[in-house]
Structures are given as structure tokens and as C-alpha cells.
Amino acid sequence: MSEIVLDKVWKEYGDQIVLEKISLTIASRAFVALVGPSGCGKTTFLKMLLGEEAPSQGVITLDGVPLIAEPGPDRGVVFQRYSVFPHLTVLGNVLLGKVFKRSPMAARLFGAERRAAIDEAMMLIAEVGLNGSETKYPAQLSGGMQQRLALAQALIMKPKVLLLDEPFGALDPGIRAEIHVLMKRLWHETELTVVMVTHDMREAFTLGTRVIAFERPRDRPEERERYGAVLSRDIDIWPPRIAGEPSIFAPDRDDPVIALGLGQDDLAPQGDIVP
Amino acid sequence: MALKIFTTKRHKPMRWINTKPTRATQIALMLAPFVLLIVAYGFTSAARLADNPADKLLPALQTLTDAVNRMAFQPDPRTGEYLLWSDTGASLVRLFSALGISTLIALFFGMVIGMLPYVRALLAPFVATISMVPPLALLPILFIVLGLGETSKITLIVIGVAPAMIRDLALKVLELPREQTIKAETLGGSSWQIALRVVLPQVLPRLITCLRLQLGPAWLFLIAAEAISSDSGLGYRIFLVRRYLSMDIIFPYVLWITLLAAITNFALDRLRIAVFPWSNLEAR
User: Is B216 helix (H, G, I), strand (E, B) or coil?
Assistant: First the structure.
């Protein structure tokens, strides 16, 4: 279980009010896509969930326990950039979470413990489609591969919540579509509640179970400082997507979770008759 | 009439910023200033010697090689030492121990100032102030307090070099993307683990670069200290023979010091690339 509850959360930086009275319950295993214009506090919201910033007023709880204002291993994160460590190889990057957990002083693993951790990391690397690149450094990977690596790195901690800050914003459309498929599969297969900030409406509606929009109701220049953004839209995707269950309504929408055979636009396999 | 949009003929010469030398030209250009300097020296020296055969200011190339031969390959009649080598040994021991100490100090203080806000509040302004003290002005104090031996010379170099290195390294730590620290925290890293596995490996290449940049100042302080009080060392020898206007010894010594510094500089950079291969990937 990993239910996030925000109760009348405000965020102010000095005189500047950023977010006003956000009350929200994010169900366990939901995939919330957070949209809104630039500067409306989406990233601030994510930073509060992450623990990097504390709310000025109000409480955020995860499974009923108030969040401490410090990032921790129960909440994974993938940023648009700088999510992976440039000085570690792909394997080293994925391994790091395990190493931190098992080796508090030396921060290195040896022998059987290391082998076990490597096995687990290798499985995850294969899962995100990076097998064969284990010994490469991030600078030798493409942008899409770096984000896949960042996902694997976060998932080895088995976090309750995965926070994504415009993770696929810098990728070209083809690569983005591929990583969407991966993201959807990971969400189905792991015990994750996902909160994703995005600029891309299409992405929000392709991946999310729920799309939330932040907006400033008062946005005249003289009002901008004293009025923050509020939650302006809260849309549950219909027909609903449920984690771990393939969609029966529109399979193509959730490709490739369930295969219903070939559609009318697919090429028939050579020498076979399509029933 | 044919369209004349795409033509293969160049109407204008290429821009200067786009013309590049070939490998051979590059080597020739690289050597040219050195050769030019030697030739110019040869001519000027010959002209002066033609005027006055006893001129000591610009000795002939032959006199220089004789001096090198005397200093490097014949034992000194008084001490039995090969002076160039014993001087080099004495100077390098001082230089490298001082650089070693400075590196360790810079690594420790640079990292704690960069990583820990409390230590930063405590020490960053202090280090910034200390680095403004002209080290040579402290030299008399060092000689009085620490005596005339090795300690005062090594201390002078450390005082001259370490504050700049600390500041550079602390800045480098602060320049690490905030996202990296946050990510490491979400992976469960403690301050110590993050220092060890995230920050330290990323500042070490910068530490080597920083050391390379400080080689010049380090030599300056070394030679200043040796000039004032010493009984061996490259700086000591130069200032000793200055009394006899022995340009035939001073010139080769200066060349030798330059060569040593250049080799150290090059070797440190190779070391960085060999030990931290990833640090060169990003530059591309």
C-alpha cells in the first residue's frame, strides 16, 4: 500500500505564494499525470512529495505517516537530466542503491553479496532493455537509454512511490513512444504509485490513470505574487486503467499489455491464414 | 539555362576560422616558435661575442653545453656530487611533498566545505580571506618561526597553493547537479556514503586538474624560498651563480625547470584520463 494524502497544503517562498490549499488523495498504485502551464508549481509539488521541500502549511502523509522533509529510499525519482551518475557504469549506477543499503561504512560490496547484487541488477538492466551496455558510462548512452538506466536505478530500491519530473521531455517522439511502453509495463509489474510531471498532454493521457491540472486562477501581473496555483482539473481516465490488469476496452491504447491477434491494418504473416 | 543554385566552384575563399592545418603543418607550426627562439638566440649571442669575446650575458651554445656537461655529468670537485641532479632531487622533494600535503588538505577541506552547509558557513569566508594573503610576505615570518630548514620552504608552498585548491574544489562540489545528490538520497545513501561514492569520485579528476594549474605558483614559491635561504636546490643554484654572472648555468637551469614542470603537467593529465576514463567522455 502506498496512499498519498495531501491535506490543505500551501507552499510559499517568502512573499510569493506558489501553491494554494491543495487537498488531494492519490490512491495506491495510481499513475497520476500532473499537467499545467510553466511556473504553476508542478515541480514544487513534486519536490514536496520528494521531501526536498517542506510544505509551508498543511500535511502530506504517505500511508498515514507524515512525510519527513528529506528524500528517502521509499520514494524513487527520475529527473529530466542528471538522474544518473556520470562516473559509474550502467551496472555501477544500478548497483548503487544495493551498495548503500548493505554497506554503510565502506559503501562497497564484496564476494557473494556483490555477486547476488549484480545478479539482481542485471535482471533489472535486462528488464529496461539495456543488456549489453553494462560496462558503458552514461556519456556513451543516448538520452533514451540514460532515462531507462535512471528508471532501473530507481526501481532497484523497490520504492513505494516513483516520482517523475518531465522524465521523457527531452526525448524524440519515437524514443519517447518506446519508453512509454516500458514505463507502462513497469507500472503494471511493480508495486508502484507513480506521480509524473509532464508538459505533454498526450503523454499524460497515454500513461496516466488520472490527470491533474494546476492553474493560477488569478494571473494578472499585480496578482501573481499573492495568489498561487490551485488544483483546477482532476480527471479520471475512462475507461479506467488498473495496475496489473490489461485494458479490455481499447487494447491498442494500452499496447502491448494484451495481444488480441492481428488488427485489420497489420500485415498478415507470410503463408498463414488469419482467422 | 541551367539553374545555378548549387555550384561546386568556390567563389569565395573559406573563412579563416574554418581553415585547419594538416598534421604535418601542425607539427611544423608547433616547432616553429622554439626553433625561432634558438636561432634568434644563436645570432644575438654570436653578434655580442664578435663585439666582445669576454661577454657573459648571452654565452655561445657551445659554452652552454659545456656548462650542462660540467653540472650534470662531472662531480663537483668540492662535494663530489653531480650538482644538477642533487639540486633537482632537493627541489623535487620539497615541491612534491608540498604538493602532496596541499592536495590532501584541499581534498578534505574542499569536500567538507562543499558538502556541509555548517562547515561552509564556518570556513568558506575564512579560506577566501586566507587565500588573499600574499604568501611571499609571510616568508620572513615562516623563516623566523620555523627556522631555515625544509619545513619553512614546504610550508610556504602549501600556504601559497592550498587555499586556491580548497576554493576550487569546494566550488566543484557545489557545481555537482542538485539532482545527483537528491537521487543518491532516494537510493538510501547517508552523507558519508554520498561523499564516498558520489562526490569524491567526481571531484578527484578536478583535483588533478587543479594540481596542474597550481604547478606554476608552486615552482614560483619554491624558487623564492630557495633563493633566500638554502644550501641546495635549483633555485638556490641559480641565485648562487648569479653573483658570477654565470648565464651559461642559469639558462640551462631555467630550461630544465620548465621541462620538469611541463612533464609533470602532461603526466598528471595522462594520469587523470587513465584513472578516470569517464572524465574525458563528457568533454566531447
Answer: helix
Alpha-carbon distance of B252 to B250, in angstroms, equals: 6
User: What's the per-residue H, E or C state across B231-256?
Assistant: CCCHHHHHHHHHHHCCHHHHHHHHHH
Residue B112 Cα, gap to closest chain A Cα (Å): 17
Enter the pTM of the model: 0.82
Q: Which residue among A72, A84, A153 sits closest to B185, beta carbon to beta carbon?
A: A72
- Asked whether the CA dihedral B180, B185, B186, B189 is positive or negative, the reply is positive
CA-CA distance, B267 to B45, in Å (whole number)? Answer: 34
Neighbour count for residue A146 (Cβ, 10 Å): 23
Q: Name residues whose C-beta falls within 8 Å of residue B276's C-beta, 6 or more positions apart in sequence.
A: A87, B201, B204, B205
Closest-CA distance of chain A to residue B210, Å: 18
pLDDT tens for each residue of B10-57: 677 889 999 899 999 999 999 999 999 999 999 999 999 999 888 888
| Contact at CB, B278 and A100, closer than 8 angstroms | no
Q: What angle do CA A62, A63, A67 make, to 5 degrees?
A: 25
Chain centroid to Cα B88, Å, comes to: 16
Do B166 and B206 contact (CB within 8 A), yes or no?
no
First to last CA, chain B: 46
Residues of B in contact with A70 (CB under 8 A): 185
Facing residue for B182 by CB, picked from A71, A100, A157: A71
- Check CB contact under 8 Å for B186 and A100: no
CA nearest A147: which of A208, A193, A196, A101? Answer: A196
Q: C-alpha distances in angstroms, A267 versus A177, A257, A258, A273?
A: 21, 20, 19, 11
Over residues A164-213, the pLDDT tens digits come to 999 888 888 888 888 888 888 888 888 889 999 998 888 888 888 899 99
pLDDT at position A267 = 56
Secondary structure element (H or E) that encloses residue B208, with its range: helix B200-213
Helix H segments across A51-89? Answer: none
Contact B182 A50 (CB under 8 A): yes
Number of Cβ within 10 Å of residue A239's Cβ equals 10
Report whether B165 contacts B210 (CB < 8 A): yes
Closest CA to A103 of B112, B180, B189, B115: B189
> CB of A148 within 8 A of CB of A132?
no
**Contacts of residue B53, Cβ cutoff 8 Å, sequence gap at least 6:** none
Tell me whether the omega of the peptide bond preceding residue A86 falls within 30 degrees of 0, making it cis. no
3-class SS at B172? helix
Residue A266 — very low, low, confident or very high, per pLDDT cuts 50/70/90? low
